Every structure is written in C-alpha cells, then in structure tokens.
Amino acid sequence: MKLDSKIPAGPLAEKWTNYKASQKLVNPANKRKLDIIVVGTGLAGASAAASLGALGFNVDIFCIQDSPRRAHSIAAQGGINAAKNYQNDGDSVERLFRDTIKGGDYRAREANVYRLAEVSNAIIDQCVAQGVPFARDYGGLLDNRSFGGAQVSRTFYAKGQTGQQLLLGAYGALSREINRGTVKLHTRCEMMDLVVVDGRARGIITRDLVTGQLQRYAAHAVVLATGGYGNIYYLSTNAMNSNGSAALVCHRKGAAFANPCYVQIHPTCIPVHGDYQSKLTLMSESLRNDGRIWVPKKKEDAEAIRAGKLKPTDITEEDRDYYLERRYPAFGNLVPRDVASRAAKERCDAGYGVGTGYAVYLDFADAIKRLGKDAVEQKYGNLFQMYQKITDENPYETPMMIYPAIHYTMGGLWVDYELQTTIPGLFAAGEANFSDHGANRLGASALMQGLADGYFVLPYTLQNYLADQINVGKISTETKEFEEAENNVKNRLERLMNNSKLQTANSKLKTVDYFHKHLGKIMWEYCGMARNTESLAKAKNLVSELENEFWKEVNIPGSQNEMNPELEKAYRLEDYFELAQLIIDDAMHREESCGGHFRTEHQTEDGETLRDDEKFMYVAAWDYQGHGKPETMEKEPLNYEYIQIAMRNYK
Amino acid sequence: MRFTLHIWRQENAHAKGQFETYPIDNISPDCSFLEMLDILNESLINDRIAHPVCFDNDCREGICGMCGLYINGRPHGNDDGITTCQLHMRKFNDGDEIWIEPWRAKAFPVIRDLVVDRSALDKIIQAGGYINTTTGGVPDANAIPIPKHVADMAMDAAACIGCGACVAACKNASAMLFVGAKVSHLALLPQGEVEAMDRVRSMVEKMDELGFGNCTNTYACEAECPKLIKRQNISRLNRHWIGSLLGRDKK
Amino acid sequence: MQIIKLHSISKKILVALLGMFLCVFLLFHAAANMCILRHDGGAWYNAFCDFMGTNYLVKFMEIILLGTFLFHIILTVWVTIENKMARPQGYHQPQRSKTHTGSKLQVWTGILILVCLFCHFMDFYFVKLGLVDGNLNFYEQAHQKFQITHIAISYLVFFVVVWFHIRHGFAAMFQTLGLYNYKYGRALEVLGKIYSWVVCLMFTSVVVGVYFGF
Questions:
Q1: Residue A533: phi, psi to the nearest 5?
Q2: Burial level of C92, CB count in 10 A (0-12/13-18/19+)?
Q3: Looking at A95, A337, A342, A441, which residue is catalytic?
Q4: Terminal Cα distance for chain A, rounded
C-alpha cells in the first residue's frame, strides 16, 4: 500500500483553484454513460447524489432506513460554520482554516482543511437557495451564534434543528433528481460488500432488509457516505442503526483505515440511568454558554446526594466546586469538548460524581437569577423540555445532570485530496472519511464537512477519476468478482445463522445486544476518554474473549430470508469486533495525547494533553491483513507549511 | 412496573396478522417505551417464545421520524408533542394493558409486525416538495432578506419529521398536514414562492393518487404531531390550491 | 370512484362553497320564520310565503337550492366513501386523540338532518307543491304543528342537530377555503359560534314561542 495524498502544488490558497482548473472533466453526453453508486443518504451522501445526478450521471443511492430523510445527520442540533463574516467580527477563510486545524490539535491535513474553509460560504448560499429556514434577525438577514473553539460568530443555525433542516434541503435536492430520473433510490437496503474488479471499485452487494435478498449493483465508481462508527461503544449519541460495517467491508477489501482511535466524546449528554438504556441523548453545547458545571466540594456531600439524602439545592455556594471555572479561568465552562469531558471524568473518578456517581451538575440557577426565567426559557426552552421528558426533573428548579458520551468519530477511511480511498474508484465522504478534523472536531464543523464533500468536492474530483472511464462501457454484474463477493456475503450470513442453530441445545444463549453492550462497556472503560498501555492491553484481551463468547453463545432468531433486525445487529457487531481491535491497536501505537485521544501516560502536570509532534505528526493509515492478523500501518506525514504549530492552551 | 402488552404480529406484508398478548414485568418507570420493547424482545429471544417484535426506530431522540406506534388509541402514545421514542413508561400506570398497533392506512402497508412502508410520503416530496435548484450558481445567502416572522413560520412548518403520525391519527388517513407543512415551508420563503403554484398541484395530485384520504377538518393530525405543526398550514395549502386553480397563468 | 376527476381539495372546496350558500339560506329562512312570532294573524308571514310561492326568481333559486343540497350530500358521501377506503383495516383501539368531535359526527348529523328535513318537508314544502295534503296557510300550519308536544320536541332536536352540523361546518368552511390563518383564524371560529347559536336560537324561539303561545 502506498499513500499518495495528491495534494496539488502551489500556494495553499490556490491549491483548490488550481486543481479545478487543471482537472479532467467528462462531457455531458458521456456523463449519461457513467454509473455511480452512493451509499448513505446523510448530508454527504444526499448532497453528493443530488449534485452528481444534476450533472447528468446515473446515480444509485442506498440507505438502510425507510427514507433518505432518516439519516443521522438529521439529529445535529447546533449549527453549521461558514466564513461569511456577516458579523464583521474579523472572520475569514483563513481564520476558519486556522481554528479548525488548531481545534483538531494539529493532526489534520492542511490542504483539505483549507479547501473546507474555502467552500464553506458556498454551502450557506446553496442551502438558502434550497429553502433552508436559517434563523434571521429583524432586518431579515441571517443570524449567527458562536460555538466552542472560535472567537467569532460564524455558526448559522435553524433553531435547535440545523442538521434536520440541512438534511431536508439535501433530501429535497435528492428528491428532485429522483423525480428527474437521474438518481435511483434504494431504501431498506444495506451494503454488505464492495466488489473490486481489476483493482478498481466496481460495485456493491446489498441485502434487502425486508426480504433478505442479496442483490448486485455495478457502477464506475462507488461513494461511501455511511457515517461514523461511534456505536461501537453501544451507548452513544448516534442513532441505533448507525454502524461502521460498510466502511469496514471496504477496509477488508483494501481501503486503508486512518486514525481509528480518534473518537470525540461530547461533554453534555444526559447520563446513563439503567442497564436497559439503549441510547444517550445529547444536550446542545450551547447550554454551556449560561449553565455552570459543578460537583460538591466535599466527598461526603457527594455521597449523601448519591444516597438521596441531600438535594443539589441543599449544597451551599462555598461547598460547590465549579471545576471548569477553577481549572480554566480564561475559558471557564466553554472549554473545547475533549477538555470538558476529561474534567468531568476526573471529578467522577475521584468520587465527587452525583446521580449514579457518573454525572455532574449543569446549573442554570445563576442564569435564571441574572436573566430571569423567561429569558432562559426563550433561549433553551426546547432543550429544557426535552430534558424533562427524559428525566422527569425540572431543570428550572434543580440543576441538570450531565455526563460525557461518545458522539463522533474523527477517524475513518483514509482518503487523498480527491476523497479517494486507497482503492481506486472508491470515494469516502463525510464522517466516513478521516480527512478534515484531525484529532478533535469543533462544534458545527461536521455539517460543514459533509456538505462540502457532497456539494462541492466530489462533483469535481469524481469527474477527474471518471474521465478515463468513458470507454469502459456498462459494468456487468455477471462476473466472477460479483459472484464471489455475493457468495462471501451469503456464507457469512449462513455462518451466523447456522452458528445460532447449532447452539439450540445451549441454555446460556444470549442476544446480540447483550454482547454489544459488553463490547461497549469494554471500549468505554478501557479505550474511552482516557487510555493507557495497561487498559488497552486489557481491552484487547477482553474483546477477543467476548468475540469467542459471541460465537459460542449468541442467539439469532429467524432466518436470513426475512426482515430480521437481530441478524442485522449481529453482522454489524461482528464487524465491530474487528474494528475494536483496530481502534485499540491504533490507540496503543499512538504514544501521545492529542485531541480526543488521551493517553494517561502523556499528560502535563495539571492533566492536560501532551502531544509528541516529533514522533506522531502523521496520519496512521492501517492496512488489513486478514481476519485476526495484526494490521500493518503506513504513515502519511503531516507537513505544516502555513500553520505555526503551538500548544493548545485554554487556561 | 408490570404491564400486559397486546401487540400486532404479522409475519410479512401478505400474511394475516393478529394480536398477541405478552405480559412484562420489572420495568423501570424511567425506561423509554422502545427500551421496554427491547426488553420484551430480549425475553422473546432468550426464552424462544416467538420471533422478536419488529418495530422501526433509529435516532431515539425524536428527530429522525423513524419510530411510530399506535399506542392505546394514540399515535406516539399518551403525551403531546413527542415521538414514540420519547414516551416513557412513567406515563403509564402499573398494571396497564397496552395495545400496540402499526400505523393503519392504505398508503402505509404493513411490512412486518409494527413496521409499515411510508415511502408514499417520499413520493409526495419527490413529486415537487423542493425548490428546483442545482448545486452552484445561486445568489449570496443574504441577497434576499426575509422578514424574521416569515422565516420563523417557515421554520415551524419545516420542522416536520415525516413520521406519518398525522396520517395515522386522521380518521380518514389523510396526509394533508404533511403536505401542508411542506407546501407552507417552501411557499413562505421567497426562494420557494416562484414555483409555489406548480408545487401545490403536483404534490396534491400525487397525494390523491397514492390513496390518502380527504381532510375533514378533525385536526387529529395537529393534536398528534410530535413537532406541533399547526393546522394553519393545511389552510394555507387549501389557499394555494385555490390559487393554483384560479390564478395559474399557464395552459 | 373517479368517474369525474376531482381532486381531494377541490371536492372539499365545493362542499364548503355549497355549505356557505346553505348557511346564507338558513339565515334567510330563520329571519322569515321570526315573522310567525308577530301577533298579526300571519299577515307578514303569509305575505312572505305568497311571495316565495309565486316569484319566478325565487322559483329559480329554489331549484338552485335543491341542487345545492343534493350536491352537498353527494360530495360528502363521496368523500366519506373515499375516506373509508383510505384505511381498509381499522384500529383495534378507539381513537383517543384530542380532537374536535364535530367533524367525526358531521356525516351522521348530516344524515339526521336529511331525515328531519324530509319530515319537515312533509309538513310544509311538499304541501306547497301539492304532493301531500295539508293546510296551505303556513302560519296556521305552523301553529297547529308546533303546539303538538312531540312535534315541537322533534323540531327542537332537529335544531340541536343542525347546531352541531353548523358549529363544525362553519369553521371548517373557512379552513377549507384557506381563510383560517394565524391572524384572524380565531375570529372566524368565534363568528362560527355566534352564527350557529344565533340561527338555531332563532328557529328555536319560533317553535318555543308558538308552543307556549306567546
């Protein structure tokens, strides 16, 4: 495997312009002859399919849900960044670029991030033209708010449902293309394997989730926009059906997987409250603007609260520890996500946690006193209501309880500047790739990246790839490669189903969820917010043991030829076992702390991340070597030509 | 808490379905409704009683629109402004009988158990529920100012999550609130106003074609909408329809 | 069902427009009835009836009115059948959504009105047309009929049914015609309430007045 990031020559600000000026294009008559498969209908997938369809390509788009509008991009609350500088507060493409690189703890590729910042403005224009009802001020112009990691107001938002509105915009554009016949939609259809013919991605094998039927689809190029793998932790802010399987099957077929250990943990989620829990709900980062985070100063108070003998309102002001304000006086409650998350964990581990012991308070009493209840309700009413629905507690009267939870994965399939993976013809967009966020993503940047990839990058770079494919002709699905791939999938499903049938005499059988929950616990405990050599080694063993146990004791009811959610969960979990090993290996090898990856051996005296730029200033791209075999790692060095590397400091 | 569940079971689209009764015990009041069904499924699998109950769900935070169960006579259960995944067991009394049915409508055929096919809603959108733009070549985002209250109204209409509760709640299985919300969202904005008349025609024609019922102004849709979308949007749809009949200066 | 192509909303709009015409008629009818309460031996009322019976424009409007009734009924039945077809398999549990009961009853109150209307025509309209025997002096006819207890009570029931029908129908009419909005939607609802009460009280007052011999 050879990594070639294909960064265009020239000064940073001109790279993308130069690329577009010199790239190869496909003429309109030839576009009709070319087929493209897009997997996933989130922001990246829907926007890519819509744009490519509008250009005239034949696009097939796939999603596992019943409608393209269900993709988990829809759940993004806060907003989308763009360097519009509508507020005249000193924003620029350059500044957005620098903020993103710094936020990513200097582990992202400069050229990609610059391009992201460069196209960010066009995204806002595009969305407004599609009818996205962004918030406006009284003059009728667009409103902005600020988010963590930036000193300017550059976040555009639509109430607390920005992701939803952006996705519906892209879904509208996609629907238009479906109506025009350029895009074919396949719902409840899961990608099971990638078909590689003569070293190029040429199609996919899918499973119809209603009938269980396997199908073959061929194309000249495949775009993967299947999101992240955060659900490997079981409890996360991801949707139940979000999974990493499509990316992983591509990885098995030769696509390098980059920086798998970079996962983002969001500090403000509603804490875990029981074993039956299936999902963690995010409370928007914007709450930290007015809420103050604290735990009791005295251990006995914390114990009394946990035992239900004391209420948070009983703790006097001097007995409260506003630990973020104490540790980071300059940024206070608004430190970046990774910092806030670690600080909460530190307090809870030290025995000061409230609730179940794994929660801290987010208190609005001060804000209510200062601004009045009405003003607070205006700003956060819907979030407070959501909190109350879930917890049955009134956040106006008693502080909210929050705890960090897995939210986003910065790692993903390795891609070059063109978003092409190491398999020619296979492209990855959005959260599925690794490219733009380094080791930590800033708030409101995920929506920006997904749409940038889909609307403004892939329509160009795909053409550059497809330009020499115009004479290939229709790709047949009746080839041995397709046959083989389909058989592999069939065997894999049969193995799972038969395995379960063989175990019928076994009375200790457990459901897939049981194993998934355990995997999640192992990963969270030993490869979560803080990692070290011992914990990672332990995790590795535990995951292997669990995988063995899985094959011995899992019970999958039904058959593969029907709607069978348990089977879906089972093969996704099977992939997670492999991915878990990769995450652990990556975390183990990266002997430094950066962004979301915190190695306890590598921290400053006051518990901050300690990077090792000498040794680890690179992207770790892992190459699959077969099941159970350690993967090999290739380094893509990060050469910062324009950015001055510094220590992240929020004190 | 302890409940008796009566759940609609139907093996596939062609099979005849029936209600099955499952008792369930030891449910925490903080448990969400879907988590309660997870627990039921776990026991159905472990004790090999039956195939686990199939039900659609995804984000479990009330925004994706995937979940939708008709619980004791109300879509999304006995609370206002929530989706099924946001319903918690504390809303029930200990010992309650709970009847769980799939959305019922000709346009929403049952696929399995509680899972229905809602692609009809996608088809309505595909018929014209968008603004005709291609990527690129659009004016600056601030080129057209939009009064704040108009943008806010458009946002309220755009909050629809496409769950189909309006159809499920309507005694006529009408999709007027869904269509009205989309028509309103786009027609309120200057960007969408251009095609407003054509849009309302094609969307309503598609809606009729797909076998949804007629609106008889019962407003069960408004009462059950998890995003509290107002019936004013249906009125606006009617208004635009009249406009398209009378005012469309085209063949 | 698609012999004539009419889109769902178009059907509703027609129903609403026809309903609106009927509302106007009803007000007119109620106002005329109030004449019965005059102690003039039926001079005003009979003069009015005479005018209605002989004027050609009125005769023309009569046909329009009958057509309106018929069309209103046909369309609503059509819509109701379509609506039943939109949900071939119903729910096991009764609906518990918080909704206006008016619309659910609308078809049934409509059918009841139709039945009552037939009886009412037996007393008055058909007499005029000569289809049934009866007193052609409607002032006297009204006095005879309304003093019989069970007939008076039946009429009062009739008015309650009409009240139900209008209460929903009037507001729904504006909704269907697209006039219900954030600005004056509430006002229209209030107007609907006032209208339904006023019309029904006018009718009721005549029956009650005659019964008690005011």
A1: -55, -45
A2: middle
A3: A337
A4: 42
* Superfamily of B118-247 according to CATH: Alpha-helical ferredoxin (1.10.1060.10)
Three state DSSP letters for A243-295: CCHHHHHHHHCCCCEECCCCEEEEEEECCCCCCCCCCCCECCHHHHHCCEEEE
Match 């000249």 to its residue by tokens: A220
Homologous superfamily of B3-111: Beta-grasp domain (3.10.20.30)
Phi, psi of A236 (to 5 degrees): -155, 175
Interval A327-338: pLDDT, tens:
988 888 888 888
Touching, B vs C (3+ Cβ pairs under 8 A): yes
Asked whether the beta carbons of A213 and A502 are under 8 A apart, the reply is no
Active site residue A337: yes
3-class DSSP state for residue B94? coil
pLDDT, one tens digit per residue, over A559-600 is 999 999 999 999 999 999 999 999 999 999 999 999 999 999
pLDDT tens across B41-100, in order?
999 998 888 899 999 999 999 999 999 999 999 999 999 999 999 999 999 999 999 999
Domains of chain C, residue spans: 11-84+103-212
B214, B219, B232 member nearest C82 (Cβ)? B214
Give the chain B residue nearest C93 (alpha carbons).
Answer: B73
> In angstroms, rounded to a whole number, what is the distance separating the alpha carbons of residues A251 and A259?
13
The ranges assigned to domains in chain B are: 3-111, 118-247
Q: What is A485-637's CATH number, 1.10.101.10, 1.20.58.100, 3.20.20.70, 1.20.1300.10?
A: 1.20.58.100
Alpha-carbon distances of A251 from A173, A428, A618, rounded to whole Å? 30, 12, 20
Residue (of C121, C97, C100) closest to C165 by Cα position: C100
* Least confident window among A240-244, A288-292, A304-308, A357-361: A288-292
> How far separated are the first and last CA of chain C, in Å rounded?
52
> The tokens 């749809």 sit on which residue?
B237
Chain B residues in contact with C2 (beta carbon < 8 A): none
Q: What is the pTM of this model?
A: 0.95
Is residue A214 helix, strand or coil? strand
ipTM metric: 0.97
Bridge-based pairing state of the strands A189-197 and A200-208: antiparallel
What does the domain layout of chain A look like in residue ranges?
A: 266-404, 485-637
Q: Which CATH architecture describes the domain C11-84+103-212?
A: Up-down Bundle (1.20)
Asked if CATH classification 3.90.700.10 holds for the domain at A266-404, the reply, yes or no, is yes
Give the C window 17-76 contacts with B, CB below 8 Å. none
Secondary structure in 3-state letters for A75-142: HCCCCEECCCCCCCCCCCHHHHHHHHHHHCCCCCCHHHHHHHHHHHHHHHHHHHHHCCCCCECCCCCE
Select the residue of C93, C172, C182 nearest B217 (Cβ to Cβ).
Answer: C172
